[in-house]
Amino acid sequence: MYGKCRVCGGAVREFIDLGRQPSANAFLLPDEVDGEFLFRLAAGSCEKCSMVQLLEEVPQTVRYHEGYRYRASGSAGHRRHFEENARRFLRDELTGRDAFIVEIGCNDGVMLATVADAGVRHLGVEPSANVAEEARAKGVEVREDFFDETTAAEIRDEHGPARVVFGANTICHIAHIDSVLRGVDALLGPGGIFVFEEPYLGTVLEQGAFDQIYDEHVFYFSVTSVREMAARFGFDLVDAERIPLHGGEIRYTLARTGERPVAASVGRMVAEERTRGLSSPDALARFGDNVRRVRDDLVTLLQGLRDDGRRVVGYGAPGKATTVTNLCGIGTDLVPFVCDSTPDKQGRLVPGSHLPVRPPEEFARPYPDYALLFAWNHAEEIMAKEEEFRRAGGRWIRYVPTVTVT
């Protein structure tokens, strides 16, 4: 099956279909399950520019609203990462007398709070009213809006040009990427940079991280596809850097064509992707085969544990949990509930599968025999915190890249 590329208009060949799925972060109250929004979660690769993307788009107003549940500051590791990002921008880019930075999708202000504390001009653009209010409580200036070329022009008229435009786990969410890039071009001053950090296609494929595919992630960037996309809108990809966030991401830096030198890392990573055949039909087909194998192995394991009278509890309720529970048909007969530290998710249900979300205290009342680790990208932090579970004889179930019990 084919679709049309959102970047170049080329043909997009489907390589994975994860079935009917809900919006990943639309956690429901028990009386809201009737009429739940569903769509076909399938991804394909553009045969012209190699951009991997969803075939169907969920309207952004369905994904981002006043009840949005994700908090970027929910992990201590995330907080450290974004504080370091802010300090780096303050040291290297925001040094002029009237420096200005704009963050697309600032969420709860975890990055811009450090910039605000330094007294540097800034603006977060955030469409979800609830997290925007949390950012304001940290001293961050926020505009409640979606970012596009119209928004960008209005920001420049009001605040002047930006030295830095930044986005983290946001740019790959925006289907109208053409309008975003035109907006960045309108907003940046001379010599300015556009920096964004996003899940890396190479990591998704290598780890078999199929649960990174959900409605919010419209695009799955590679260095090759980002370089191609940048050139179409008058930018150079001047740097590409691996970062550990979410199991492995890339920090991309764009500047207008010819304004900054291109780091050697860009050409090196493009060559690596070419050698690996990163987005080749064969590589994508192997990924699909692995997803189906993991699905079957995980369901078989959970059914066997249930039949043996073992108790399994889910740990973490990120958007990824929606993909895996719905793909695998994991219901309360296999996993009676999920523990998560996000207050806004507690007392609600995982979309689609309708697993109850409970506070982390419930994990030890009493400890289960097994914990299914949905928040696998925080495994080190979580396992260190839950050492008592291990001492009590508990075991962890992981499914990326394969189903394992440790």
How many distinct domains?
3
Going across the major beta sheet, what is the strand order?
7-6-5-8-9-12-11
The CATH superfamily of the largest domain bears the name Vaccinia Virus protein VP39
**Class inferred from helices and paired strands:** alpha/beta
Number of strands: 18
Q: What can be said about the biggest beta sheet? A: 7 strands, mixed
Unreliable stretches covering 5 or more consecutive residues? none
Strand content: 15-25%
Radius of gyration: 21 Å
CATH-defined architecture of the largest domain = 3-Layer(aba) Sandwich
Distance between the termini: 39 Å
Number of helices: 13
Share of helical residues = 25-40%
InterPro entries: Methyltransf_Zn-bd_dom_put (IPR013630), Methyltransf_Zn-bd_dom_put_sf (IPR038576), MeTrfase_14 (IPR013691), SAM-dependent_MTases_sf (IPR029063)
Domain C-methyltransferase: 244-401
Pfam families: Methyltransf_13, Methyltransf_14, Methyltransf_23
Domain Methyltransferase putative zinc binding: 5-61
Descriptive overview:
By secondary structure, this protein is α/β, with parallel strands linked by helices. The chain folds into three domains: 2-50, no CATH class; 72-277, Vaccinia Virus protein VP39 (Rossmann fold); 282-405, Rossmann fold (3-Layer(aba) Sandwich), CATH 3.40.50.720. 34% of the residues lie in helices and 23% in strands. It has 13 helices and 18 strands. The strands form three sheets. Strands 7-6-5-8-9-12-11 form a seven-stranded mixed β-sheet. Strands 15-14-13-16-17-18 form a six-stranded mixed β-sheet. Strands 1-2-3-4-10 form a five-stranded antiparallel β-sheet.
